[in-house]
């Protein structure tokens, strides 16, 4: 009965120690040294163990450093002792592999025999219990219970108690690491806050300086704008014209080479008797009539260059796949045939050709021919478009200003400008052209190009590049009338009387010089014509009247 009461008392004391350790302020703050002293002192006194120590591994895990060891008989704490892995390799290995080392006789236990001369004998240790401290998979250290001068067999309760204390130490170390990280984060946040405040002050100072500089710059720009004149603008346009005309000429050379190469490639691949296509055609289709039928089929498909999609493509694919399946040909070939413009309506026109035993080879040759033709066709279309663009560009920037009026094709003159803006008309601008047959007029083509450019670009801007632009030409007596209409926001009535004034603009800074309509008026005046406008929201029309013959 006395033994039972003694065990119950010890159990309560152990639980009390565990509770005190878990709630100890140092466990939360991560103060391992203070917590270790509390644990070694409490355990030593309650369990009557002469030596209790806490040992922790260094960062490289090759040394065990004594954080605290309590000697019960002397009531003293010590620390700082070091056990090195290179001196106790086997003993360190046991710590890595096992949860605890319960050496009832450490002098014969293989797990502790390496400590005999350097540690056990000098300290008179007769029984040793090492509870391994782990945090997850990481080995942290060990909690050591060591009896001196008397034999002792470690019970399961003592081993469990040692392990529980080791878990509490691991938790305290985790808290210590978290606290270090949190302190570092707080420090970084404070530094970042100070940097941000410093940066904000710097930005504010720089903003004030920049604002002042911008105000001075705006004043300077405004002054410079008022000092500009048409002569400077004309000279700039002349210089630009020389440059762009030279570039357009250089672009025309590779365009011509591409066009010639494409034509030669077309002839050498298909039209020449020695072409690979002709040779393959004769091998696959020896019969001359069938060859002729195949070439006729090619011409039909060339005229059918089209792009189909959606339901029409799906229905055509089903029809062709069914036909290919009946001929024992892979159904996936249907997509290639559809891309050539092929459909089953051609079967009756080329009946003998499609009954051939070499049908799959014939279809393959057919697809190859049309595919290459389509590629060459796209190439030639692109060359044609590029040629038109360079021609329009050369006409637009021609820098030789005519001294005397010349005959001008007004339609071609306007079309040159529209070609340069054709990319806008492909997007959100609808272009309506109503050209009557008007006679040639006398004029200065380079200046007229700038007239249409200013009017058309102003109209596009007024619509925010989204709306309807109409251009109309017609003859009225001995004059030609050109109307440029847009459905933009219109010109406010309050400023309509000023729009032809030089340097007057309603556009944001940097987007307009205020010279566009002034230049238009002067160009029309030089042609002895007139320019007027009508504007309400949703409809603005500029009307330009030009005489067919300029008076002497």
TrEMBL record:
Single GO molecular function: phosphorelay sensor kinase activity
Top EC class of this enzyme: transferase
Record keyword Iron-sulfur present: no
Coiled-coil segments on the chain, per record: 178-230
SUPFAM superfamilies (UniProt xref): ATPase domain of HSP90 chaperone/DNA topoisomerase II/histidine kinase (SSF55874), GAF domain-like (SSF55781), Homodimeric domain of signal transducing histidine kinase (SSF47384)
The EC number(s) this enzyme carries: 2.7.13.3
Swiss-Prot/TrEMBL catalytic activity: ATP + protein L-histidine = ADP + protein N-phospho-L-histidine
InterPro entries: GAF, GAF-like_dom_sf, HATPase_C_sf, HATPase_dom, His_kinase_dom, HisK_dim/P_dom, HisK_dim/P_sf, Sig_transdc_His_kin-like_C
Keyword DNA-binding: no
Limits of the Histidine kinase domain: 246-550
Keyword line: ATP-binding, Coiled coil, Kinase, Nucleotide-binding, Phosphoprotein, Transferase, Two-component regulatory system
The protein's name: histidine kinase
Species per Swiss-Prot/TrEMBL record: Leptospira bouyouniensis
């Amino acid at each position: 009965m006395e033994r039972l009461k003694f065990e119950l008392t010890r159990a309560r004391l152990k639980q009390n120690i565990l509770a005190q350790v878990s709630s100890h302020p140092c466990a939360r703050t991560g103060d391992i040294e203070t917590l270790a002293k509390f644990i070694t002192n409490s355990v030593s006194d309650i369990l009557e163990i002469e030596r209790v120590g806490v040992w922790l591994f260094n960062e490289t895990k090759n040394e065990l450093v004594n954080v605290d060891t309590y000697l019960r008989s002397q009531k003293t704490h010590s620390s700082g002792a070091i056990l090195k892995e290179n001196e106790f390799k086997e003993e360190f290995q046991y710590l890595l592999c096992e949860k605890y080392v319960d050496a009832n006789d450490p002098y014969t236990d293989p797990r502790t025999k390496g400590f005999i001369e350097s540690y056990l004998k000098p300290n008179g240790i007769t029984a040793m219990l090492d509870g391994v401290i782990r945090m997850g998979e990481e080995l942290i250290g060990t909690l050591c219970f060591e009896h001196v001068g008397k034999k002792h067999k470690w019970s399961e309760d003592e081993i469990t108690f040692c392990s529980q204390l080791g878990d509490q130490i691991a938790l305290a170390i985790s808290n210590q690491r978290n606290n270090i990280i949190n302190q570092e984060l707080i420090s970084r946040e404070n530094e970042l806050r100070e940097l941000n405040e410093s940066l904000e002050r710097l930005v504010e100072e720089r903003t004030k300086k920049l604002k002042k500089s911008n105000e001075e710059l705006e004043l300077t720009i405004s002054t410079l704008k008022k000092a500009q004149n048409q002569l400077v603008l004309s000279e700039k346009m002349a210089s630009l014209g020389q440059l762009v005309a030279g570039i357009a000429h250089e672009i025309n050379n590779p365009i011509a080479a591409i066009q010639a190469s494409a034509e030669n490639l077309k002839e050498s691949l298909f039209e020449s008797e020695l072409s690979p296509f002709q040779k393959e055609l004769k091998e696959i289709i020896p019969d001359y009539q069938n060859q002729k039928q195949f070439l006729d089929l090619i011409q039909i498909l060339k005229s059918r260059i089209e792009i189909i999609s959606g339901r029409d493509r799906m229905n055509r694919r089903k029809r062709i796949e069914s036909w290919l399946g009946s001929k024992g040909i892979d159904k996936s070939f249907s997509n290639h045939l559809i891309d050539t413009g092929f459909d089953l309506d051609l079967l009756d026109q080329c009946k003998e050709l499609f009954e051939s035993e070499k049908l799959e080879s014939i279809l393959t040759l057919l697809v190859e021919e049309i595919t290459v033709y389509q590629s060459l066709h796209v190439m030639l279309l692109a060359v044609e478009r590029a040629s038109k663009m360079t021609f329009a560009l050369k006409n637009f920037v021609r820098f030789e200003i005519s001294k005397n009026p010349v005959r001008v094709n007004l339609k071609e003159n306007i079309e040159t400008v529209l070609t340069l803006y054709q990319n806008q008309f492909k997007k959100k601008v609808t272009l309506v052209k109503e050209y009557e047959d008007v006679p040639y007029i006398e004029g200065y083509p380079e200046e007229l190009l700038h007239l249409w450019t200013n009017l058309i670009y102003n109209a596009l801007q007024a619509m925010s590049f989204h709306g309807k632009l109409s251009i109309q030409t017609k003859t009225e007596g001995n004059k030609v009338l050109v109307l440029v209409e847009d459905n933009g926001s219109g010109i406010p009535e309050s400023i309509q009387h000023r729009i032809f004034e030089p340097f007057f603009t309603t556009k944001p800074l940097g987007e307009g010089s205020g010279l566009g309509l002034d230049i238009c008026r002067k160009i029309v005046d030089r042609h002895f014509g007139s320019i007027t406008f009508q504007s309400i929201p949703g409809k603005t029309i500029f009307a330009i009247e030009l005489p067919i013959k300029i008076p002497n």
